[in-house]
Write a structure and sequence with these properties.
The chain is an alpha/beta fold and 426 residues long. It is built from 14 helices and 16 strands. The longest helix is centred in the first third of the chain and has 23 residues.
Length: 426
């Protein structure tokens, strides 16, 4: 597709989304529920057909030499599709927040002032690999009363087209515009450059993928972007703490899954509990083949651990997001040093303290500058589903608008509403 055709295509998608967004904003809760439940039913009824389309993507990916873990992310198994369907049903069952008015208060002038929850309008979603994101984004768009333009990865184009077709069937079946969720039909990379600069049509861009993609979008976009670049998450083992609990949580936070952005990448341990805690967690990590990049103190304590893979930590390790079986370990004097270290090196995604001291916990919650801050829990809980949001469209480490897992509320805004009875300003 040449440049002029791509520009024309994207302008058409933008204009259609803008028009559809007005209809979505005024759709009733019942109509949106109908669309979401219909989408769940369509996903279940079309498992075989979807797998035929998905097989085309899988075959193309393998022929191109894509690594098997990446191929695995492309798969639309019956289980993946059932999870998507359940997500649609969970969103349908959630209270509709669009049009909700909060904080209404009487002013001395006689007017009453409050805030109403409203949709953002049109958001563009740019994502890689996993075709199930098409359904997550579409369902959240429907629930939040927005229109969406979705640009999935070229490696999943056949799967995404098939899924988007079902979304549009569900929309029209509920009496909503099919253009409320549109998939960019071309794999031309120029379409992304166009989408992120169409401020006349698009109100928000959400990139979901690798650091390279997100950096590019953030640098080139002329539309607000919800993003996070890194997931350098910390678990701090405090003095005092429950050692057995700390071992269990630090194990889960690192090894439950290595690739998600909420996996712990850096373990800090208070000097007072290091001798008791580190040999135990070291044995766990050694048994699972986790490489430990250590400060001198932690390396000395872990030196006798059978099977341990120990390396000297470099300055770069404190900032690293490994996304693999590697963790950095540092012994700190206590809470003050832990908080200072996290605020310097963290990506401000998710950080946790494991402690028995209530005041330490409260200070950690107040002073650690991250999107999610936890006490006595695994960082792996930093997830929209686990937070009760129904689903998430991504995680934001920005401070404006949405922060942390972005669910329905993160795809909305607030406007002031003023109720009067003929008051005039004197």
């Amino acid at each position: 597709m040449n440049a002029s055709n791509t520009t024309e295509l994207m302008n058409t998608l933008g204009a259609q989304a803008k028009q559809a967004s007005a209809q979505m904003a005024k759709a009733s809760a019942a109509v949106k529920q109908h669309a979401l439940r219909s989408l769940a039913a369509l996903l279940r009824a079309n498992v075989d057909e979807l797998q035929v389309e998905n097989a085309k993507d899988l075959e193309r990916a393998r022929s191109a030499g894509l690594a098997e873990p990446m191929v695995d992310r492309l798969k639309l198994t019956p289980q993946v599709l059932e999870t998507c369907a359940q997500g649609c049903e969970q969103l349908a069952a959630m209270t509709d927040i669009i049009g909700e008015v909060t904080g209404m208060r009487q002013m001395p002038s006689g007017i009453r002032v409050g805030q109403m929850r409203v949709p953002i309008g049109v958001f563009g979603m740019i994502y890689e690999s996993r075709p199930n994101v098409t359904i997550e984004a579409a369902s959240l768009s429907i629930k939040s009363g927005n229109a969406a333009i979705l640009r999935g990865g070229s490696e999943a184009i056949d799967s995404n087209r098939a899924l988007a077709n079902l979304v549009q069937q569900a929309l029209t079946g509920a009496g909503l515009p099919a253009d409320a969720v549109q998939l960019v039909p071309t794999t031309d990379r120029a379409a992304v450059g166009q989408l992120i600069t169409m401020a006349q049509y698009v109100d928000l861009i959400i990139p979901r993928g690798g650091k390279g993609l997100i950096e590019r979008i953030s640098a080139e976009a002329k539309v607000p972007v919800i993003k996070h670049l890194d997931g350098n998450c910390h678990t701090y083992v405090d003095d005092p703490c429950d050692i057995a609990m700390a071992v269990k949580v630090a194990d889960n936070a690192k090894t439950h899954k290595y690739s998600p952005c909420n996996a712990t990448e850096s373990l800090m341990v208070a000097r007072g509990v290091a001798a008791a805690f580190l040999p135990q967690i070291g044995a766990v990590y050694a048994g699972k083949g986790v490489e430990m990049r250590c400060c001198p103190t932690s390396k000395a304590i872990l030196a006798g651990t059978t099977g341990a893979i120990l390396r000297d930590a470099t300055e770069a390790d404190w900032s690293e997001e490994y996304l693999s079986a590697v963790i950095s370990i540092k012994v700190v004097e206590g809470l003050d040093e832990a908080i200072a270290h996290i605020n310097r090196y963290s990506s401000h995604h998710t950080d946790a303290i494991l402690t028995r001291d209530h005041m330490h916990a409260q200070r950690f919650l107040r002073e650690v500058d991250s999107a999610s801050v936890m006490v006595n829990a695994s960082t792996r809980f930093a997830d929209g589903f686990e937070y009760g949001l129904g689903a998430e469209i991504g995680i934001s480490t920005d401070k404006f608008h949405a922060r942390g897992p972005v669910g329905v509320e993160g795809l909305t805004s607030l406007k002031y509403v003023v109720l009067g009875e003929g008051e005039i300003r004197g």
